[in-house]
């Protein structure tokens, strides 16, 4: 009697499980299905039918929605970062002009060569041009201009600050020593400020950010 009750019990459980699965997927178990054996007691197998067609639809929908959400979040973050950068740039248009640059590598210099400082750390007003080493004054005012140049091993280094075509204060270094100049200048918009090597042969400037050029408007 117990044997028949057990068989009937598992048969009933199997029917109920299949019916529940069919009902939860839209009362349709005729789609593509896979049989997964769960139990095999008293030679009465308990089999679950899974609707893989609907499962694929669910997975596809989930993947698409997840990708769309991730893409929207990424675009939103990029947009916010871009707007933040734009706002920072717009804010800086009202700041006083200032620049600071240093030289990354050592170089042998020719006579009357304008020194270039290729690593730009700050360039408010975009007055400094790294490829030429020239600071073009963006507005009238009183400026502080600074320069430090380091010579290479066993070499001299003679330089001067220039405004347009006029030589100003100078600096000198020898054998890894530095020459430094600091001056205050009344400048007009469009003036060209730069550091020029003097008329000497066989001189070099040391890089590694030991040589620098900077300036800023104070009033």
What would you note in describing this structure?
It is built from two helices and 14 strands. Residues 1-6 and 23-29 have low confidence and may be disordered. It is α+β, with helices and mostly antiparallel strands and 219 residues long. It folds into two domains: 2-76, no CATH class; 94-217, Jelly Rolls, CATH 2.60.120.40. 16% of the residues are buried.
Keywords for this entry:
219 residues; alpha+beta; Jelly Rolls; 5-stranded antiparallel sheet; signal; C1q domain-containing protein; C1q_dom
Short description:
The protein is α+β, with helices and mostly antiparallel strands.
Named CATH topology of the largest domain: Jelly Rolls
**Which oligomeric form is depicted?**
single chain
Structural class determined from secondary elements: alpha+beta
Poorly predicted sequence stretches spanning 5 or more consecutive residues: 1-6, 23-29
Mind telling me the CATH class of the largest domain?
Answer: Mainly Beta
Distance between the termini: 106 Å
SSE string: HEEHEEEEEEEEEEEE
CATH architecture annotation of the largest domain = Sandwich
